[in-house]
Write a structure and sequence with these properties.
By secondary structure, this protein is of the alpha/beta class. The chain has two domains: about 15-185, Nitrogenase molybdenum iron protein domain (Rossmann fold), CATH 3.40.50.1980; about 205-345, Rossmann fold (3-Layer(aba) Sandwich), CATH 3.40.50.1980. Helix content is about 40%, strand content about 15%. Strands 8, 9, 10, 11, 12 and 13 form a six-stranded mixed sheet that branches. The chain has a three-stranded parallel sheet with strand order 3-6-7. A two-stranded antiparallel sheet has the order 1-2. β6, α6 and β7 (about 160) form a beta-alpha-beta unit. The radius of gyration is 21 Å and the shape is globular.
Length: about 350
């Protein structure tokens, strides 16, 4: 399931915070050179200091970071796209390679001629503080994450932390890129990546005019008898908007928990008949999960299912790429994604 769930272990935070404070002085004076690619694309110290505001606090980065740690989804994609290999980044047991590296990240690391960074335990979504201390970061980038205020405050004792601007797990891929670019003193390069990616999306969307103005309902069947329905501010939903699709009014109409701050809400199967949409877009880890979902009588009765207006995203890596779009994952998956959406859109009567 994306993003990873959180499991609280508050009793450890006081001890960890103390260890971070004790380590901070050593970390700040022990910075080593970054990857060989750094010198080719990184801005000089003239770009610094920079200040980045977030929902959890304002962060000032005094000089060009060389030891970069990323947290959450997407930040490592942007750093790699900018030609820098992070010192540490999350290990993705879901959707990653055998080593826990997302395939588009693995491709980019190979292209840069570097080695796999230190991988941080990410299964629970809880920050592995001891592992971050070991990485000796100059900066911690987490613009698309579920970072809590306590985690932000604790990590800030170690290095400047860049969090999300408004809500957890709701930062668009464009804003993520801009935030990371600013933090690294690479705003122009980040802007160029956004423009290039937008051109890719626009060009491919133009080849499939059948998508324009079709409505969609984006969901996942992660629990028996319930759908997770993704709201308008979720990046995976916004990517479909970029392709010319429109949010089904049902997304807002069936939302019984507005204002809870989450990027999704749950809808019971009893309400499936109330969904009015051209396309039903959902993700699944494997084809057998799709088959199990569509075999449910309440699901099978949905017009979108009966008429083939259903676009299942199947396979962990494909799910991850479409669920957390970035300047690296979008070009990796878009040639597969858009034709699949267009095929379903072509069945709209």
């Amino acid at each position: 399931m994306l993003p990873a769930p959180r499991i609280a272990r508050r009793s450890r935070l006081a001890l960890i915070a103390s260890a971070i404070v004790a380590s901070a002085a050593l970390v700040l004076t022990g910075c080593s050179a970054g990857s060989p690619a750094d010198s080719a694309t990184s801005g000089g110290d003239a770009a610094f200091p920079v200040t980045v505001k977030s929902a959890l606090g304002e962060t000032t980065i005094e000089k060009k970071p060389e030891r970069i740690v990323t947290w959450g989804w997407g930040a490592q994609d942007i750093v790699l796209a900018l030609g820098i290999i992070p010192t540490a980044m999350p290990k993705f047991t879901y959707s990653g390679t055998a080593d826990g590296v997302l395939p588009w990240d693995a491709d980019r690391i190979k292209e840069l001629g570097g080695k796999t960074p230190q991988l941080l335990t990410f299964d629970t979504g809880e920050v592995p503080f001891e592992e971050v201390v070991k990485a000796k970061p100059d900066v911690i980038l987490a613009p698309y994450s579920g970072l809590t205020q306590t985690e932000f405050d604790t990590l800030s004792k170690l290095a400047p932390v860049v969090a999300y601007p408004e809500k957890p797990w709701s930062t668009s891929w464009r804003d993520q890129t801009a935030i990371v670019g600013k933090a690294l003193g690479l705003t122009k390069q980040a802007d160029a990546l956004v423009t290039k990616t937008e051109d890719t999306v626009t060009t491919l969307a133009a080849k499939y005019p059948v998508l324009k103005d079709k409505t969609f309902f984006y969901a996942a069947a992660n629990e028996p008898g319930k759908l997770n329905v993704y709201r308008a501010d979720d990046p995976r939903v916004q990517l479909l908007n970029d392709l010319g699709l429109k949010n089904s009014p049902s997304i807002a109409d069936l939302d019984g928990s507005k204002g809870d701050g989450s990027f999704f809400y749950q809808l019971s199967y009893e309400n499936l008949s109330k969904i009015d949409t051209d396309l039903l877009v959902m993700y699944f880890d494997k084809q057998s999960s799709v088959d199990a979902f569509t075999s449910d009588p309440l699901v099978a009765a949905m017009p979108a299912i009966k008429e083939g207006r259903f676009a299942p995203i199947v396979g962990e890596s494909f799910v991850a790429a479409t669920s957390a779009p970035s300047v690296l994952s979008i070009p990796w998956m878009l040639d597969r994604y858009v034709p699949q959406l267009a095929e379903a859109a072509g069945k709209v009567r």
